[in-house]
């Protein structure tokens, strides 16, 4: 049975029945239609294999970047198996500016629209023109314009109606030629007259300082999404915790940093077996080396229950947890 620990950034020692890679659509269809149960994998940075998976893991390696130009923007058609950070670097080096805030996010280009990756005040949806995918059951290929992708905070149609049914093969980006730096977030605000290169360098510096490197300490980035609550819920929390941070959310309501909620309850640095709530960023759970899937589930549930009891807010995982038969929920 192939080992999966090197194929997901949390590095739990799960196994699967078979592990296959594909570089083109035809092979992807043949492989997916030949097995009863499969899990599509990019780079495994948003996936934790909690236990052995009774199926085939299919790794997407469709690559290639094609650039063209219109009057106002640069169009980039990118293979879903390209590495996200390398793509951001490629864009910067070619003078296609704007995506620097998203530097160093692990993972593949094909997974980027799925949870609408975002960092430092920028979401990938801002640059996506359309997403190309194939329906795995029928083999039909479709191109979904960005407006139909229902992008939201760490959300899209690919997490709902299309979840598990399609393979994203290419993402079409449109990068405006007019460059507007986004420096409203955290450390970037200190930059004066920043160039795209400055933002890229600063984002990398800050991320390396704050977040554990998955090559050194297994983790899957933010374990939970930041909850979006009603104004009434936010006011009720603020009445007891006057310093609670809250940010207006596009989809109405107020977004509260999950890290703050978790921190109030003393989980920072707490360890359950081999799983630890990261001491400098409590939103990240790490594998200290000997973690088990059950310990991940237990610590995550402890955090969810404690936050729910104290604040009346239910945290949702941002990571995908994969069990014997596929995705599992907490
Ligand atoms: C240290 C660290 C920091 C992170 N920081 C951020 C951050 O700042 N912002 C942020 O938004 N995220 C962040 N993440 C999460 C992660 O980087 C993103 O979710 C990324 O897009 C996942 O890409 P992946 O290829 O590794 O996805 P995977 O984990 O391989 O897959 C994720 C999901 O997408 C599906 N999938 C993957 N590829 C395809 C495809 N081609 N077609 C259809 N379905 C597919 C999989 O089945 C799975 O359900 C971080 C993760 C880590 C480990």
Can you characterise this structure?
- Keywords: Cell cycle, Cell division, Cell shape, Cell wall biogenesis/degradation, Cytoplasm, FAD, Flavoprotein, NADP, Oxidoreductase, Peptidoglycan synthesis.
- It catalyses: UDP-N-acetyl-alpha-D-muramate + NADP(+) = UDP-N-acetyl-3-O-(1-carboxyvinyl)-alpha-D-glucosamine + NADPH + H(+).
- Its EC number is 1.3.1.98.
- One of its GO terms (biological process) is cell division.
- Its cofactor is FAD.
- There is one protein chain.
- The protein has 330 residues and is of the alpha+beta class.
- It has three domains: 56 residues, Uridine Diphospho-n-acetylenolpyruvylglucosamine Reductase, domain 2 (2-Layer Sandwich), CATH 3.30.43.10; 143 residues, 2-Layer Sandwich (Uridine Diphospho-n-acetylenolpyruvylglucosamine Reductase, domain 3); 116 residues, UDP-N-acetylenolpyruvoylglucosamine reductase, C-terminal domain (Uridine Diphospho-n-acetylenolpyruvylglucosamine Reductase, domain 1), CATH 3.90.78.10.
- It is built from six helices and 20 strands.
- The chain has a five-stranded antiparallel sheet with strand order 5-6-11-9-10, with no helix packed on it.
- The longest helix has 19 residues.
- The model has no long low-confidence stretch (mean pLDDT 96).
- The protein binds flavin-adenine dinucleotide.
- Flavin-adenine dinucleotide (FAD) binds next to strand 2, strand 7, strand 11 and strand 12.
């Amino acid at each position: 049975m192939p080992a999966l620990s090197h194929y997901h950034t949390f590095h739990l020692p799960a196994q699967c029945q078979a592990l296959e890679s594909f570089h083109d659509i035809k092979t992807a269809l043949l492989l997916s239609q030949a097995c009863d149960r499969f899990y599509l994998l990019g780079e495994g940075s948003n996936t934790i294999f909690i236990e052995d998976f009774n199926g085939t893991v299919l790794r997407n390696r469709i690559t290639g970047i094609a650039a063209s130009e219109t009057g106002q923007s640069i169009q980039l058609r990118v293979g879903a198996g390209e590495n996200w950070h390398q793509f951001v670097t490629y864009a910067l080096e070619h003078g296609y500016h704007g995506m620097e805030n998203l530097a160093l996010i692990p993972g593949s280009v094909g997974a980027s629209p799925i949870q609408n990756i975002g960092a430092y005040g920028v979401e990938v949806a801002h640059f996506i023109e359309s997403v190309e995918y194939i329906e795995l059951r029928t083999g039909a290929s479709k191109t979904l314009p960005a407006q139909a992708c229902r992008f939201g905070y760490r959300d899209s149609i690919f997490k709902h109606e299309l979840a598990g049914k399609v393979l994203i093969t290419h993402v079409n980006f449109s990068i405006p030629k007019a460059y507007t730096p986004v420096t409203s977030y955290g450390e970037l605000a200190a930059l004066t007259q920043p160039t795209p290169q400055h933002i890229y360098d600063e984002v990398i510096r800050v991320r390396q300082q704050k977040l554990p490197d998955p090559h050194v300490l297994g983790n899957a980035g933010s374990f939970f999404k930041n909850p979006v609550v009603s104004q009434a819920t936010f006011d009720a929390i603020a009445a007891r915790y006057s310093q609670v941070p809250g940010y207006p959310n596009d989809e109405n309501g107020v977004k509260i940093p999950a890290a703050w909620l978790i921190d109030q309850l003393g989980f920072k640095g707490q360890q359950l077996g081999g799983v630890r709530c990261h001491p400098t960023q409590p939103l990240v759970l790490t594998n200290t080396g000997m973690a088990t899937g059950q310990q991940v589930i237990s610590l995550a549930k402890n955090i969810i229950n404690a936050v729910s009891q104290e604040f009346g807010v239910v945290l949702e995982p941002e990571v995908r947890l994969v069990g014997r038969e596929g995705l599992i929920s907490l």
